[in-house]
Specification:
This protein is α/β, with parallel strands linked by helices. About 40% of the residues lie in helices and about 20% in strands. The protein has helices spanning about 20-35, 60-65, 85-95, 95-100, 120-135, 190-200, 215-230, 245-255, 260-280, 300-305, 320-330, 335, 360-365, 370-380; strands at about 1-10, 40-45, 50-55, 70-80, 105-110, 140, 150-155, 160, 165, 180-185, 205-210, 240-245, 285, 310-315, 385. The longest helix is centred in the last third of the chain and has 19 residues, at about 260-280. The chain binds adenosine-5'-triphosphate and magnesium ion.
């Protein structure tokens, strides 16, 4: 039985005059994600994308990958047959045995985009419905809330039938809503923050700070592994690594311990701001959640933001740790995030950080540092990894 994938567009259907642009990016992303599986014919009609294999590709794998492409609300696997009622009936009975066997109620919907087909949609529905009731006598028709909706569609290239619809990845096509730099640590939160903005269509460049010899090679490898896991959603994402040792040592040597974390976070923002400028990124993304730790109080966040005029996006700001962990498990980054390697944030952490630092205090501390030189030197250590 030939299979075909149908992917229903999500939020982009609400777009007006610029809809075309979103459609194009969506189609490109889908094509790229299926590329190595073989040749496909991919077309769009009435907000549905149709994927047919031209070379016997693994359709189950293609189906899984389509479910991970941002921009689709739902994805179905359909079965194809010639455009005559006998074939459609035979196909329906054969391919729906699984879902209908377990259901109590069903309905049939028909669409006829090939207007030369002799039966009209309501006639197709009643004939197919009749055959299914005969074959699966335990079923009842229920038009409002059926357990299973069987869809029959007659199109130019043939007819197809499907009944199983799974949720798509949702969101907007990756790359359709600008670029941003994701401050990616080895923790649980920042990969989730990156995923959430990627889902809104933002193309990401990851920026990671590490502090050899205080942080080891395995800690860096862990972050690169997280980046690789994120590339499922953010194809081609580059990772920029920055050596942060000199900055942290300078803070340790010259500043009051209570302010370490906020000062360190301000350096991260300054450096990330410059990387954003160089990569033409319109925003910085962090994984902070209000009140989670001392550096994430409103006062501390404000001080962190005040060193940059970049837009700072914090998609996790209103979320509980439990919700963040749930997403992290679902997207597949959790197991890597909890590997116990040190992050530069855990180097020289104060025992009693200030939860309400003031700008005056912080500026006084920073006046003992050569801020610009430290930023410039850190920028000289940049390495870019892409895969
Ligand atoms: P995460 O789980 O993302 O590490 P966290 O709750 O541990 O977050 P912090 O360590 O205070 O929080 O860091 C806050 C945010 O700063 C992170 O979510 C991340 O965006 C950024 N960040 C922290 N450490 C690094 C790092 N080493 N490299 C890049 N960004 C970092
Ligand atoms: Mg962290």
């Amino acid at each position: 039985m030939e299979q075909i994938i149908l992917a229903k567009c999500g939020e982009i259907v609400l777009k007006g005059l610029n809809r075309n642009r979103f459609d194009l990016i969506l189609m490109q992303n889908l094509k790229a994600s299926l590329e190595d599986l073989g040749a496909f014919e991919i077309s769009m009609a009435q907000s549905t994308v149709y994927v047919r294999s031209l070379s016997g590709a693994d359709m189950e794998e293609a189906f899984k990958r389509t479910q991970r492409v941002f921009g689709f609300a739902a994805v179905c696997m359909a079965y194809v047959c010639p455009k005559d009622m006998e074939s459609i009936k035979a196909l329906a009975v054969e391919c729906l045995a699984g879902p209908l066997g377990e259901a109590e109620t069903f309905k049939v919907e028909a669409k006829r985009s090939d207007k030369r087909f002799p039966l009209k949609s309501p006639e197709i529905c009643s004939e197919i419905g009749g055959v299914l009731l005969e074959r699966f006598p335990h079923l009842r028709v229920e038009v409002h809330h059926p357990d299973v909706t069987v869809t029959v569609e007659v199109r130019d290239f043939g007819a197809y039938v499907h009944a199983v619809r799974v949720p798509g990845a949702g969101g907007m096509p990756y790359g359709s809503n600008g670029r941003a730099c994701l401050l990616l640590s080895g923790g649980i939160d920042s990969p989730v923050a990156g995923y959430m903005m990627a889902k809104r269509g933002v193309k990401l460049t990851a920026v990671h700070f590490f502090s050899p010899p205080y942080t080891g090679e395995r800690a860096k490898q862990k972050v690169l592994a997280l980046a690789e896991e994120l590339r499922v959603y953010c194809p081609g994402m580059k990772v920029t690594t920055v050596q942060f040792t000199a900055v942290q040592e300078a803070i340790r040597d010259h500043c009051n311990e209570e302010y370490f974390t906020v000062i360190m976070r301000r350096f991260m923002m300054r450096i990330a701001h410059e990387i954003a400028r160089r990569t033409r990124s319109g925003a910085l993304i962090t994984g902070e959640s209000l009140g989670q730790v001392a550096s994430q109080t409103m006062d501390a966040l404000q001080l962190t933001d005040s060193v940059t005029d970049s837009l700072v996006l914090r998609p996790l700001i209103g979320m509980d740790k439990e919700e963040i962990v749930r997403i992290s498990r679902r997207i597949g980054t959790f197991e890597t995030s909890i590997q116990p390697y040190e992050d530069c944030c855990t180097v020289f952490t104060p025992k009693h950080p200030k939860t309400k630092p003031t700008l005056r205090q912080i500026e006084q501390e920073e006046s003992r540092l050569e801020v610009e030189r430290l930023v410039e030197q850190a920028l000289e250590t940049i390495e870019i990894t892409e895969k």
